[in-house]
Amino acid sequence: MNSYGKPAFCTCISIDEKSQCLWIGDNASGVMQISYVFKGDKAEYKTEYFINDRQGLNDEYIRSILYYEYSNVWIGTRYGGI
Fold first, then answer.
1. Cα–Cα distance between 5 and 81 in angstroms, integer?
2. Residue 81 — φ and ψ, nearest 5°?
3. Confidence grade of residue 7 (pLDDT, cut at 50, 70, 90)
4. Which of 79, 76, 61, 66 is CA-nearest to residue 10?
5. Pick from 71, 81, 79, 78: which is nearest to 23 by CA?
6. What whole-number distance in Å separates Cα of residue 7 and Cα of residue 38?
7. Tens of pLDDT along 25-51?
8. What residues form DSSP beta bridges with 23?
9. What is the DSSP letter of 66?
10. 25/20 Cα distance (integer angstroms)
11. Is 35:45 a contact under the CB 8 Å cutoff?
């Protein structure tokens, strides 16, 4: 679910294996950070937070996302740039 309680339309994903987080870009609602933990052959997921217009994102239409070392996340948007 995206930050508006609707099913997410994921356009891109990046993984931070060290912190066990997924960074997911939604087509029209911003970015979600989801943590995961492996328990046996299954994984448990938890939405940590959303980055959208309420947090200052000027374009919620995410087109690309890249997690980079040192906890940097690069987000490319439709019209708002990086």
1. 26
2. 80, -155
3. confident
4. 61
5. 71
6. 24
7. 999 889 999 999 999 999 999 999 899
8. 14, 33
9. E
10. 17
11. yes
Enter the tokens of residue 18.
């060290």
Q: How far apart are alpha carbons 6 and 16 in whole angstroms?
A: 25
| Residue 56, both tokens | 């200052």
Q: Which residue has the tokens 């070392």?
A: 69
Residue 16, phi-psi category: left (phi > 0), alpha (psi -120 to 50), beta (remainder): beta
pLDDT of residue 77: 93
Question: Cα separation of 44 and 51, whole Å?
Answer: 21
* pLDDT confidence band for 2 (50 / 70 / 90): low
Structure tokens at 38: 């492996």
pLDDT in tens, 42-75: 999 999 989 998 888 889 999 999 998 777 889 9
